[in-house]
Amino acid sequence: MVRRTALLLVSAALFVLSTALPAAAFNPDTRVSIGSPAAPFSQNKQNEPAVAIDANDPTILAAGANDNIDLEACNAGNDTTCPFTPDVGTSGIYFSFDSGGSWIQPTYSGLSARGCLGVVGDTDPPCTPVIGPIGTVPNYFENGLVSDGDPAVAFGPTPGANGGFSWGNGERLYYANLTANSSGGGVETFRGFEGIGVSSTDDLSAAAAGDNGAWTNPTIISRQSSTTFSDKEQIWADNASSSPFFGTVYVCWAAFMGQELSPNAVPAGLQVAVSHDGGATWHQHAVGGAANNGQRNPLDGCTVRTDSNGGAYVFGIGTVSQAGHQAFELMSRSTNGGERSGPGSVGGHRERRPDRNRRDRPHRDVVRERHARSAARVLHGVHRPRGNVVGSADHRNGG
Prior knowledge:
The chain is mostly beta strands. The chain has two helices and 20 strands. Strands 6, 7, 8, 9 and 10 form a five-stranded antiparallel sheet that branches. Strands 11-12-13-14 form a four-stranded antiparallel sheet, with no helix packed on it.
């Protein structure tokens, strides 16, 4: 009896220990936006976060979010309004060097409205932003631009002097976000309401310490017209050294085109931009058409990833006419680093019948929704238009 009791006690102790260990393996919730004040609103507001883990050193993380830390308080000027302060950025950046156990929100210099707190009532003047501390990604105001949120972050290898990529060169953090022209213009303005801006840093310690110079100037990678509103971007860098396209960077987004007043939604073709030189130059192509009507809805809400063999995958939500115009998760795949591949049209894509013997061709798979009984497969090529390298100095086609 004593032996049985002892066995029961040992078993109970082992059970308690086994259930406690998994819980101890997780860090408790940790505040990321530690620079945000407790009040007032909306300086204490963040949303739409993104996070990236350094594949070369998983203890290093970077995060982004829409962060209103630098905007005016609601009591500034007219108390019945709570506006976004013109020309003040909202793309927050945060770093962790201990696997997310603690975070740093650096303070940079830029256009800031933090001091516009106002008073109750309408006796105080409207807010006038000044050069001062900012908690958002830097170097936008200085280049005639505004960081407008919807951030996306990704780590990749740093290119060497010969242009080749190696983790031995260190890591490069890419930061993509919506970007607007500042009201005063600048050295790099672009056509359209919102564009896609990308900047990067190779010195994470300096960037986390608040050094503006640790970041490159932003590059507008979206080539667009005066009526385009680019939105919902995501970024990824091929981080597998086994990949023939190691170091290649991919950005996808929805390009809302025109200002339709019809009952149909604004056309929004999915765009993909690719850089093979660490973000110095970019090539852009469309994935799918921009039609948005009762017969066809384009891809939207994208995500892009790569595999260890260099395959690149872009996911988005869209409808398939062969499947009764139901909405599905659609996937476009490139096996050549996002470059033009195979015969066919250039500067877009065309539908192809499934050909299981031609596995080298980029294609789009239709992934069955949870409650869908059947799904069709639609194959599309992923191509790049001829010429028109899009970068900070090449915007000849409306970028």
